[in-house]
Amino acid sequence: MTATDRAGHPLPYDTYREAVARETLRLAEVTEGADPATAVPSCPGWTLADLTRHVGALQRWFSTLLTGLVQEPPRSRDVELGLPGDAREQPGWVAAGVPAVQAVLRDVDPEAPMWAWGADRHARFWARRMLFETLVHRIDAEHALGLASAVDPVLAADGVDEFLVNLPYAGLFAPGVTKLRGDGETLAFRCAGADGRPGEEWRMRLDPDGFRLVDRETQEPGPATASVHGPAADLLLLLYGRRSCADPAFEVAGRTAVLDDWFAHTAF
Description:
- The protein has 268 residues and is of the alpha+beta class.
- The chain has two domains: 3-150, Up-down Bundle (Four Helix Bundle (Hemerythrin (Met), subunit A)), CATH 1.20.120.450; 157-266, Nonspecific Lipid-transfer Protein, Chain A, CATH 3.30.1050.
- The protein is built from nine helices and five strands.
- The protein has helices spanning 3-6, 13-31, 48-68, 90-96, 98-107, 124-144, 153-166, 232-239, 256-266, and strands at residues 185-191, 201-207, 210-213, 226-230, 251-254.
- The radius of gyration is 19 Å and the shape is globular.
């Protein structure tokens, strides 16, 4: 199974569609009534107003791409936002966009070929991408307001997969990944299983010409050059730069310098 083969929709498509609505409404609920000028520490330089505007605008842009089933990279991100003039009204604006987003996700054929910046060039890519963009920013908002966050471990593990499958293609907006190189080192990211089930593992190989997700069926046995093991939700946030390997939630083994180089190039 190659990275491209794995880049479809490991969870049922409706799971993504329903979770997008749930996460978006949760973000709106969390930020409703909060000071829009509140800093968001996990997004340096951003306020809650910036965060809600980003999520609402991105969802509307994704919906425009899906509606048109675009076949080429778009030249502009300009879409009609209907953004309220008062930042305090932005949480309501985010929530108000949910029915239209849901209609687009419901009506589109997830198997329809279309442009996507990642590994999976089908409409389903955007539903999955929209979910994890929204989910991570929901957590950003909760942390900014001192609230506890919870993530379903099944969704979190799928988010780890989505991140690692698509990361080699992310140079379009994260140029650091294009400079990530190695000499055959492997990094293993392993999440703890839920309800007594074994966890999943993803191995990334660093080569002189770039990096890639290793085929699980053909990967070499034995320990990786470096590895991180932890709960799926924590692992997801680690990959997104919201956690540190030094956090007690993680078990780290191997050459930590390889991990340091990884995180130095994959932050976005």
